[in-house]
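hi support,

uploading two proteins for the ticket. first:
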Amino acid sequence: MKLEYVLPKDIESRSFEIIGQELKERGISIDEDKAFIIKRAIHTTADFDYADTLCFSENAVDKARELILSGADIVTDTNMALSGINKGTLARFGGRVHCFMADETVAAEAKERGLTRASVSMEYASRIEKPVIFAIGNAPTALISLREMYDNNGFKPAFVIGVPVGFVNVEAAKEMIMETDIPYIVNRGRKGGSNVAAAICNALIYDVAGSRG
């Protein structure tokens, strides 16, 4: 293969051009209102399966836009996702990004109760007194905790991005969210990751800011 000379500032846009071309070549058609999210997930992973497996609840994109515009916060289950989300652009709308996984109080409580830190961190996040978008890219127990709070305590997250990666309880945890009336973007199956969670958040943030990439 020959090298393609692309200016640094044009690499991302050229990547999206290639993604669009390959989707067409593969005969894959995606809804226009979701395309900017699906393409960014593919851009992050170079995995075209996301065109088939990324699932959206009814009016999910519009609801996520409204939340960001109204200043909703984002809670992640990893510091990697926290680092990857564009916090400066989100802050323009009044939102902040949180991750409680490294909090000493969360760690101590998780150990005492025999739970994962992800589970306890979701409980802490549920106390934030404003709408929250939960962006889960690593821990299925975070999704399970959200579902348990929904069932037992009447807590309904404003939105869930559920894309944990792995093998143990990953698929079941995603399905548990999709069974509810919680607005969601979820990737069915085992694939996902903190990078995908951050990519979906950024796709939505950039869309609201008027620059989809």
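and the second one:
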Amino acid sequence: MSQVVTSSGPAGGPEPVPKPRRVALWLTVLILALLTALLFWRGMSYYRLALDSRIEHPDFRTLSPSGFLGHGYGIVGTALILTNLLYLVRRRFARHIPDSFGTMKTWLNIHVFTGLVGSLLVVFHSAFQLRTPIATLTSVSLGIVVVTGLIGLYLYALVPKAGLKPLKDRLAEIQPLLPGVAKRVEEFVKTAPVTRLPADASIFRALVTMPRWILEARRRRRGMGEAVRADKLARVVELKDPKFVRALIEELGALAAAEIDTHAGGAVMRSWRSIHRFLALLMILSVSVHIGVAWYYGFRWIF
């Protein structure tokens, strides 16, 4: 799936709009790299030892899962992961929460940041050892949630956000110059609708429908040439400036296909988000059991 968003230049031709810089992404990567390096530097000599040799290390009571720092890593990491779930609340009540509390994009960035940093701290809390079934289950569930979250973030970045509005805006721009083209393109798009899935469609159904969406998008791109050249004035313009007409056909075809890309990507994201949310709830359940067992056996940190 791809998206082409353009605006008209001085001569009415397509002019690409620069993509926004992903400052939050690179800032998160930088912080994770620095934090990882710092934590490794603090306990490298301890983490490199075999499990039976760590007891004699001076940092055993500090960096072990029950130690002051090791236990603290787990508490702070768990707190960040729980904070991470506030994004679900923000998304669920998005209509009732004003943007003054932060836009959905800002909350998503916070969701990603707290999830990755919290998971990193939990890894160092374990001191790279899984000695109990509960600890193993918690680590595996956390790893699955992180992986599915990163995949979801990648899919989210691929989903076009424009829909059909840019096409309508572009047709409004060329309406005064080529009124017949605008009318024929609108009629063509109506005859090439997009397959729509219900909001609760499964990921399997979305993936099965993907080939149909690809064919529908291809049909719109290929049919745009016929729709434009069906206008007599467009044919006259093509005789004088064929490059302009070819660029216009390509642009309108991409914008018409963007609606299909948007709907297809949105359907995949909705189903994938449901899977990720379900796995996150299972992870919280395993973390709760892990905390309860640790508390029961007296591993209470400073409490």
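thanks. also noticed: Residues 23-50+60-159+273-296 form one domain.
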